[in-house]
Specification:
By secondary structure, this protein is an alpha+beta fold. About 30% of the residues lie in helices and about 25% in strands. The chain contains ten helices and 24 strands.
Length: about 450
């Protein structure tokens, strides 16, 4: 069908939509200390209330769950379409912004500021998409509920609260918090921390070895401090200094997201390769041998025994995210993401066995199930059809290593707002979006909401 009427209505509301998005963007909704009636701090609560008030002003039914997650709803029917997003944001940081991070300013057709893409622009815009459907009196068989959490960036406890406390689950839906054309698969993940107390300091005394920002980030820099002199294979990435009878070795790699570790260079592995000719002994020797033999330059888990390849959903990735040794304790973290043909229990058991074969215990383990919605499902086929009708481009659904809000609800996938080939500015200083492309994404969102709410089982 043609979505011309919906597209036109979105453009007629352009100024109103932008004003609504900008108003929410100016709220610094970074998670803070919990307060009475504000479980994630005052900022996220203020943004949540702003979205609810917008829904009230536009004449929709609204609801919320204990100041954690809210919704705006339209229509009748037993079944419900869910559009899931969030109004909390990551911190802006102190540097790198051309315009104020919470100014929501528009310059030369570009909207600048934290949340314009992730996720205030898309989710506040979805409320206006709901208004467009209502204004045009389009026939729908399913209710549509735009749901907005306020703790997505810090673990999505808001969505978990919604599910665990028995609030109504959507029949079908999407989150406008990723990429077009549609993401039908998000790999399963195992996050694991291995380590031990240091009982044997070995032949060469290591005072410190450490690097890493987070489990899901390739280690960009790493440092080793050793008493006395050691052999070091110096390279462009390795620097060596000597101070007060100590050898200090530093490595510089290249950061990347943990879902794409092959795009980075792990500084910890660079450093250990530079000093591997030394016989350190003790727990540090065990740490070095484990990291070099079981991981090394690999990012596919082959030596760890968890390398899976699936034609449809990709292959295993393994990221070494944090390493630490201080003479008292030592630990490391692995972020493992695997495709559809992997058995999660086998992955976990294999990782644990490899870790336990050295002098390490598993100190922490967490899992996230794979998200997989078949390409021929009602949900994926309709979203692919909408994107093709709106853009004229036929693109295949995507399988990714990253995880989105869609994993929190059944029969939900990620859909937009970022178009293919666009630079990744989410979570970065100078987060921005072209107004024209944001409105285009909202037109596609409105069409998708309508198509899913029609309740037609037609396959495209």
């Amino acid at each position: 069908m043609s979505y011309e009427a919906l597209n036109s209505r979105i453009m007629e509301m352009k100024d109103e939509i932008l004003a609504g998005i900008q108003q929410n963007m100016r709220i610094e909704s970074v998670r803070g200390e919990a307060q009475p009636d504000a479980p994630y701090g005052p900022g996220p609560k203020a943004a949540l209330e702003d979205a609810l008030e917008l829904g009230r002003k536009l004449g929709f039914k609204v609801g919320q769950a204990d100041n954690r997650i809210g919704w705006v709803e339209y229509g009748e029917g037993k079944e419900m379409v869910g559009v899931l997003g969030h109004v909390d944001v990551v911190p802006a940081g102190d540097t790198g912004w051309t315009y104020p991070a919470y100014g929501a300013e528009i310059h030369d057709g570009i909207l600048w500021g934290r949340g314009c893409l992730d996720d205030k622009g898309p989710i506040i815009g979805s409320i206006y998409a709901l208004k467009a459907i209502r204004d045009l009196n389009l026939p729908i068989d399913r209710r549509i509920r735009v749901i907005f959490g306020s703790d997505e960036e810090c673990g999505s406890s808001c969505a978990a609260y919604y599910v665990e406390n028995g609030y109504e689950m959507p029949t079908i839906g999407f989150t406008p918090d990723a990429d077009f054309p549609v993401i039908f698969c998000e790999k399963g993940t195992t996050g694991i921390k291995g380590g031990s107390k240091v009982y044997d300091k070995g032949h060469i005394e290591v005072e410190y070895f450490g690097g890493g920002i987070a489990d899901n980030v390739v280690i960009p820099t790493c440092k080793l401090i050793v008493k006395g002199d050691i052999k070091v294979a110096e390279t462009e990435e390795i620097t060596v200094t000597h101070e007060n009878g100590k050898t200090i070795v530093e490595a510089v790699g290249r950061s990347a997201h943990g879902s794409t570790p092959h795009l980075g260079v792990n500084a910890a592995i660079l450093l250990l390769n530079a000093v591997k000719e030394n016989e350190f002994g003790g727990e540090f020797q065990q740490l070095m041998e484990f990291l070099l033999k079981e991981i090394g330059a690999e990012t596919n888990g082959e030596s760890l025994g968890v390398h899976y390849v699936d034609e449809e959903t990709g292959e295993t990735t393994v990221n070494l995210g944090i390493v630490y040794y201080d003479g008292e304790e030592t630990y490391f973290t692995l972020d493992v993401r695997y495709p559809k043909n992997a058995d999660p229990k086998v992955v976990d058991d294999t990782l644990i066995n490899h870790i336990n074969s050295y002098t390490f215990d598993v100190l922490r383990k967490n899992n996230h199930k794979i998200l997989y919605v078949p390409k021929d499902s009602e949900l994926v086929t309709k979203l692919v059809h909408v994107y093709e009708e709106e853009t004229g481009e036929h693109l295949e659904p995507l399988a990714i290593g990253g995880g989105t809000y869609a994993k929190k609800f059944p029969n939900m996938v990620a859909f937009g707002p970022v178009f293919p080939g666009e630079a990744d500015v989410i979570h970065q200083p100078d987060e921005h979006v072209e107004v024209e492309k944001l409105l285009r994404a909202l037109q596609i969102t409105a069409a998708a909401m309508y198509e899913l709410a029609k309740n037609s089982r037609k396959q495209y």
